[in-house]
Amino acid sequence: MIIGGQDSPGVFGGMGCERLKDCLRLAQMSVQRVGEDLMITAYRE
Q1: Contacts with 42 (C-beta within 8 Å, 6 or more apart), sequence order
Q2: Separation between Cα atoms, residue 19 and residue 3, nearest integer Å
Q3: Less CB within 10 Å around the terminal CB: N or C of the chain?
Q4: Distance of CA 28 to the CA centre of its chain
Q5: Which InterPro entries does the UniProt entry name for this protein (predicted)?
Q6: Above pLDDT 70, what percent of the chain?
Q7: Are 31 and 42 in contact (CB under 8 A)?
Q8: 16 within 8 A of 35, measured Cβ to Cβ
Q9: Full residue range of the structural domain in which residue 9 is found
Q10: Which residues pair with 2 in a beta bridge?
Q11: Strand partners, 31
């Protein structure tokens, strides 16, 4: 689950969600290091 919003710190912007049950659910998530960065790959459930 990714939680964010316009006023939250970090790289995710947008409207966000008011309740956790309304947030986008992700599956098959993987994280890879690419140099000094992280690449997060996931698919919608």
Answers
A1: 26, 27, 28, 29, 30
A2: 10
A3: C
A4: 13
A5: DHFR-like_dom_sf (IPR024072)
A6: 71
A7: no
A8: no
A9: 1-45
A10: none
A11: 40
